[in-house]
Amino acid sequence: MRRSPTADQTEEEKGISKYRLINRLKHFTWAWYTLTMSTGGIALLLAEQPHTFPGLMTIGKVVFIFDLVLFVHLCTGISIRFIRFPGTLSSSLHHQTESLFFPTLLLSMANIISSMQMYGDPVAGSWLLVVIRVLFWIYVACAFLSAVLQYQLLFTAPKRLTIQSMTPSWILPIFPIMLSGTIASICAGSQPPQHAMSIIIAGLTFQGLGLLVAILMYAQYIGRLMQYGLPAPDLRPGMFIAVGPPSFTALSIIGMANSIPKDFGYFGSHETAYEVLNIIAVFMAVFLWSLSFWFFSISLISCVACMGKMRFHLSWWSFVFPNVGFTIATITIGTSLESQAIMWFGTGMSVVVVGLWLFVLFTHGRAVYRREILFEGNDEDDWHTSTRAVD
Question: How far apart are CA 77 and CA 195, in angstroms?
Answer without folding.
Answer: 37
